[in-house]
Amino acid sequence: MLFLATMKRRNFIQHLCPALTITQIALLSSSCQTEEEPMLPATTEEEKEFKRISALFNADGFLIEGKTVFVNLAHKNFVKLGDISGFSNVIEAGILLLKTDANTIKAFDNCCPHQGARGSWVLANGRFKCENHGNSYNTTEVNLVGCDSNSITGGLVRYPVTLYKTYLKVVKS
């Protein structure tokens, strides 16, 4: 205690503050990191549901029932989802599918928050970019912005995903 009491303010700031600042930055960055949320495994009821719909897919490899979209990942239209960072825009279903790691496919609203376009997406540096006006949106669920809200930045709305064998279930909220 005597050391701190006799230390001059300038010495204190020069010696102690950088260490405190580094500690605060480390704490903030570690609290902002999120683990990938794996796809949920199908429950017994969902397995029955997947078996029921397996014969109902359209020629494009998906089925829409209300706010639920079923996707047959084995269909040729979804082959890009076999690669990490591969994505597929299912325009008719209103979803973007993105493979983020070996075990995770995420689903997002494919409606551009800026002006509502749905069909002009590219993926660059982990962000979806709408080719209509060049705005890009994150996939990290930070600062979510809704469809046609005139927002030029933010995050796309994400939907929950369940996987059963080669079938994916997306529930749009």
Automatic annotation (TrEMBL):
This is Rieske 2Fe-2S domain-containing protein. Pfam families: Rieske. The keyword Transmembrane does not apply. Keywords: 2Fe-2S, Iron, Iron-sulfur, Metal-binding. SUPFAM superfamilies: ISP domain. The lineage of its organism: Bacteria, Pseudomonadati, Bacteroidota, Cytophagia, Cytophagales. Residues 76-170 form the Rieske domain. It comes from the Bacteria.
